[in-house]
Amino acid sequence: MGITYDGQTKTFHLQSERTSYIIQVYNGYLAHLYWGKKIDSYNHGTKLRFKDRSFSPNPDLTEPLFSLDTMPQEYPAFGNTDFHIPAYQIQLENGTTVTNFQYKSHRIVKGKDELDGLPATYVESDSEAQTLELTLIDEVIDAEIIVSYTVFTTFDVMTRSVRFVNNGSKKLKLLKAASVNVDFRESDFELITLPGAWSRERYMEREKLRSGIQMIESRRGASSHQFNPFLALVRPETTEEFGEVFGFNLVYSGNFQASVEVDQFQYSRVTMGINPFDFSWVLDPGQTFQTPEAVMVYSDQGLGGMSKTFHHLYRDRLCRGKYRNQLRPILINNWEATYFDFNEEKIVDIANASKQLGIELFVLDDGWFGKRNSDKGSLGDWFVDRDKLPNGIEHLANQIVGNDMQFGLWFEPEMISVDSDLYRAHPDWCIHVPDRSRSEGRNQLILDLTRKEVCDEVIKRVSDILASAPISYVKWDMNRHMTEVGSISLPAERQRETAHRYILGVYYVMDQITNAFPDVLFESCSGGGGRFDPGILYYMPQTWTSDNTDAISRLKIQYGTSLIYPISAMGSHVSAVPNHQVNRMTSLDIRGHVAMSGNFGYELDVSTLSEEEKMEIKEQVNWYKGVRPIIQFGDFYRLKSPFVQSHTSWMFVSDDQTEAVLAYFSTLAEANAPFTKVKLRGLDPNNVYKIVELDQEFTGQELMYAGVNIPELHGDFQSIMWTLQAKY
């Protein structure tokens, strides 16, 4: 395993535990030969082939059949005989955009370097990975492109990123700088993406590739609710358990673009990176530009195999800090219980009632600062509202912590209200364009985090609050997307750098605060799941999955999210009924079962519930504590999809296969319905498992190959959750 180079054929073979990736330097350009199931030895049985293709020009007159238009490439440009979507584009001072970067050198090193100013996967020892750096040079402009590949041997993953270096004497302007490009010499694939909207995030879509371009992107300044920075190519016959999958995920939280182009010869090109729309970057002499990282996963064991790889990598080599592998507390959040209408007495009442039910963490949501009685003001004024909390945050936190609970707090650090003391003092501190109106979203503007003085003030104000009280959890929200994108701190030629510089500022602020408070569990949020991406997970190990807390809606949301992101990253709460987003009535039972399929919590006023409801919540909390390690850090298996039927099922299995949790959900009841069974996955076929709730024993073989009967569930919105214990 690792990376080898054959100097005779100029071929690089990158190998992980089960995957091979093969590159060849051909006529000075990087050619893509293979990505798929591991090959011990490659002897060029699928070597590059060329013929005279009309209207495919030839860059090398000594080889008239050769054209970049027909060669599968690793990092292609436009304008030098390739007519496809390029991976990069550079504008010279003379206004032209023709470049010709060719192979200069390479190096193979152990381990993996950090990316300057950007989140990325990492290694804990150099033995975990090898990195290949391929340096390309354009001698006319004296610039280099360094294309980096890291192979994680045990995680069966490859990551890619690119660095541009201007060694010349003239300015260059990057117009496009993708992180990854792969040219497949076939197009017999289907495309999987995760589109959505606020409160309807990451709904799974699958469609056949067709000639032309299929594209997902965000132009909103965030990775967005609308599209996740992920796509996968799968074979038409691929299922959860079987078939080939090629997955791509961008470790980035801003504007992105991912596309698949099928050309006239049925080649398919996947390109992913920063969205080139409204983007450029001036590269002065001596400067470099680093692209975000892209994570690439191949699986021949279906979508489930791909997900398992992503989950393990992100859980262990993307998330960081104290809570990376630590059990997450069961929390209660007061938002849907009180919204902005609360005082200290009400908060303490909810916290005390929650403690009696076994809940471990109380989170005070929006409304505790400034004069925040609605969403119309005070963002940026991170000072305690003494009308609501006359004794301050410290006194409130000490009361709750003194009752043997943890205390958490909500912030929205990246935003500013027009009706705020901060805005009145610094009206130029927001993202805006001079002489243009400033559109508001949720009555707020976005702080200009391209400016260090703004970043430092945010860091100071948030840090002062966190240092003032025993706060062990922060919910970090972000509730609007970018309009009138510009920064008065940047010159005219750099205005289109604003959106990317903003994200770099977000990462800087998050890095400073999370490192200063390592004992705080940070959960990210953006109107729920509007910035659920690997970039944020690097700083904050869990994300509020969606503002939609309806159990039935959450089946699709959590199912789609699980395609890439581990269960330990998903916040999931029980809320009141009728549900505040869809007005649906569901039982506390199914609400609990769906929420317990993630990082479990509640978002309602438990102090007003009946004794029967309180007893049921207490039982849910106690049950979840017993299975929490399996759910949060076990292997996750999707058994039935809510996107194709009215039944959903998934399960969690401990690493040693001795314990498991099975969940089954029925949404709409059907008259004279057929009987249902579920085939389990991930168990030891040779062991015997007791299903505790049935008080029955079955072999792993029987449960996985024959399945287990699901009892008849009467009425809409019914569910079961069973625990399995291995006998030996």
Descriptive keywords:
728 residues, alpha+beta, ten-stranded antiparallel beta sheet, eight-stranded parallel beta barrel, globular
Structural class: alpha+beta
In terms of DSSP E residues, the strand content is: 25-35%
Low-confidence stretches: none
The beta-strand count equals: 38
User: CA-to-CA gap between the ends?
Assistant: 35 Å
Main sheet characteristics: 10 strands, antiparallel
User: What is the share of helical residues?
Assistant: 10-25%
Number of helices: 12
Task: Report the principal-axis shape.
Answer: globular
User: What do the pLDDT scores average to?
Assistant: 97
**What is Rg?**
27 Å
Structure in words:
The structure is a single chain. Helices cover 19% and strands 30% of the residues. With 728 residues, it is an alpha+beta fold. Helix 6 runs parallel beside helix 7 and helix 9 runs parallel beside helix 10. The protein is globular.
Summarize the structure.
With 728 residues, the chain is of the alpha+beta class. The chain contains 12 helices and 38 strands. Helix 8 links the parallel strand 27 and strand 28 (542-544).
Topology record:
Blueprint: E1 2-6, E2 11-15, E3 19-26, E4 29-37, E5 88-91, E6 102-110, E7 129-138, E8 143-152, E9 157-166, E10 172-184, E11 190-193, E12 205-208, E13 212-217, E14 230-234, E15 245-251, E16 256-262, E17 268-274, E18 281-283, E19 288-290, E20 293-299, H1 302-317, E21 331-333, H2 335-338, H3 344-356, E22 361-364, H4 392-402, E23 406-411, E24 415-417, H5 421-425, E25 444-446, H6 452-468, E26 473-476, H7 498-516, E27 521-524, H8 534-537, E28 542-544, H9 551-561, E29 570-575, H10 588-595, E30 599-603, H11 611-633, E31 635-640, E32 647-653, E33 659-666, E34 676-678, E35 688-691, E36 696-699, H12 700-706, E37 708-710, E38 718-726
